[in-house]
Amino acid sequence: MAIRFQCGSCSQPIEVDDEWASRIVGCPYCRGTVTAPAQSTLADLSHTPIATPIQTTPISAGPGVRSMAAEGRNRLALVTLVLAIAILIQLLIAAMIARKHSAELHAVQQRVLELQKEGTSPIAAFQRASAEFYDRHGGAPPEWFLAQALLYFSAGLMWLAAVICGGIAVLRPHRRGLAAASLITAGLVPVVFCCSGGLGMA
After folding, report:
1. 79 near 166, Cβ under 8 Å?
2. 90 in Cβ contact with 155 (< 8 Å)
3. Edge to edge, what strands does the sheet with 52-53 contain?
4. pLDDT truncated to tens, each residue of the chain (202 aa)?
5. pTM for the complete prediction?
6. How many angstroms separate the CA atoms of 166 and 182, rounded?
7. In this structure, what are the phi and psi dihedrals at residue 185, rounded to the nearest 5 degrees?
8. Can you give the three-state secondary structure of the chain, one letter per residue?
């Protein structure tokens, strides 16, 4: 019969065979030592790792030790990676749309500059140039322009979610390397994208 309890150092749920009750065992999470209680202090939990009995040898994970890391407990690390990839894909699609309509976007930019030279404020110049641009498309933004704006907006939301998920994931004991790499990727993709002018596609 197994004894289930929480590690006194990292508070993770672990279990040990009843023959090791009231004896020192090694936590499979933090590798710290803890004295097993005489009886279980936790309810029956599935996938609870087995603590390593301590004798006269250093703590090591034996063949019977089951760690939650092997079962993918830090799913937020994978979520962050997926979000980072999704951000990159959306920015690339948005950049491809901008490249396809680069002549129209360039004309709007030039019109803004012309209005500014005439003494119009930057905000007013942008609003007027945008209104003229919409008028050429029936008084409303063209579909490709709306699709591009939606992609940028979605990428922004995903970036925020990736930062939050990645920040939480790096604080968890498993897959910290993956979480950190995904968080850095999610954070750098928009920066590199903007600094490179849309990867040269806009």
Report:
1. no
2. yes
3. 33-35, 24-26, 52-53
4. 678 888 888 888 888 888 888 888 888 888 888 888 888 887 755 555 555 555 434 344 443 444 444 434 678 888 888 888 898 889 889 888 888 988 888 888 899 999 999 888 989 998 898 898 888 888 888 899 899 999 989 988 998 998 888 888 888 767 778 888 888 887 777 776 666 555 444 3
5. 0.55
6. 7
7. -60, -45
8. CEEEEECCCCCCEEEEEHHHCCCEEECCCCCCEEECCCCCCCCCCCCCCECEECCCCCCCCCCCCCCHHHHCCCHHHHHHHHHHHHHHHHHHHHHHHHHHCHHHHHHHHHHHHHHHHCCCCHHHHHHHHHHHHHHCCCCCCCHHHHHHHHHHHHHHHHHHHHHHHHHHHCCCCCCHHHHHHHHHHHHHHHHHHHHCCCCCCC
Q: Which two tokens stand for residue 202?
A: 């806009």
Q: Which two tokens stand for residue 200?
A: 């040269």
Identity of the residue numbered 138: G
Q: Which two tokens stand for residue 116?
A: 């500014």
Q: Which two tokens stand for residue 113?
A: 């500059």
**Cα–Cα distance for residue pair 108/119, rounded to 1 Å:** 17
Q: Which positions ≥6 away from 126 have C-beta within 8 Å?
A: 112
